[in-house]
Structure formats: C-alpha cells, structure tokens
Prior knowledge:
Helices cover about 20% and strands about 25% of the residues. It has helices at about 15-40, 95-100, 150-155; strands at about 40-45, 60, 70-75, 105-110, 135-140, 155, 160-170. The chain has a 7-stranded antiparallel beta sheet with strand order 1-2-7-3-4-5-6. The termini are far apart.
Amino acid sequence: MTAALPRARASRPAGRLLPLAAAALGAGAVLHALLRRRLVVVTVRGASMEPVYHDGDRVLVHRQPLLVPGEVVVVERPVADATRFVPPPPLPKSSGEVAGRHWMIKRIAAVAGTPVPGTGFPALAGTGGRPIPPGRLILTGDNAAKSLDSRQLGFFPTDRVLGTVVRRLPPSTRAS
C-alpha cells in the first residue's frame, strides 16, 4: 500500500504581488498628501491660553475650521503694530507654507450674527449689543492678563483662521 503525499500548493508568483504592493503604496501616498493638507501640527508659544495650553505644547489643527463659540482656533496674527490687519494673502495650501507665517491660538468667544458683548472688550466699545459683522469673530485667550486678542484688537477676520484645534499632542521625542 502506498500513501499519497500531500500536494504542495503552488505559490503565487511575485509578479502578481508587485502591482498590488504598488497600488497600496500609491493609495498611502495619496492619503498622506490629503492629510497633510487637512491637518497641521502647531506649537503653542506664550502664556495666553494657560491653564489649558502651555508654552511648548503641540496641538493638532484641522484645517477646515469649525467656527463655533468655545472652540479653540489658530488664527494669523495681525501686522506688527498689532492694531490692524493687512489684506490677507491666500491661506497656505500645504503645511510647508504654514511655517513662514505668524499664528496665534485663541478661543472663539462669539461669531458673526451674534451680539457683541457689552463689556470686557475695550476695542469694541460702542458696538455692544449689535450683531457681529459677517466674516468676523471675537477671539480671546484664556489667560486675559497675557493675551493679545479681541479685547485689544477688535474683530478678527474669519479668512485668517488656519483651523480648529483637535487635540493636544504628546511631547515630541525628537532630539533638538
């Protein structure tokens, strides 16, 4: 009596796996490019958002901002004299373009269409109770004593908002 040996399975030729691997790599590259356009990491500088965010904290920012009161946003800083905004250049399309600009992290206090608060905003004196104009926001730092925000600057243009803070990131482990 003879025993039949199990048949060896034919292995897939490497040539068939190569296109699948290339497709997976291509899809990964496209996903990476899309995420880089939608998400950016920003490092907090200064004490204006303490106690929630501290100098050196890193935050993940979603570049399609959700502009509702209470949300924390990253907004482009006004010109150097801090009393006015210059006509805005287009917002950056890639994270590389974000690096060369000056940003502030602030909390949305009020949005277009809602009433301007009657007190606490000297730069908005005389506008209390009126609706906030379209395309404008009132932004504040959580640490009023250390914050340059709508209390001193008035309204911020919505087209200067880079995005909404999604979460704080763990400290960087990269060597300096």
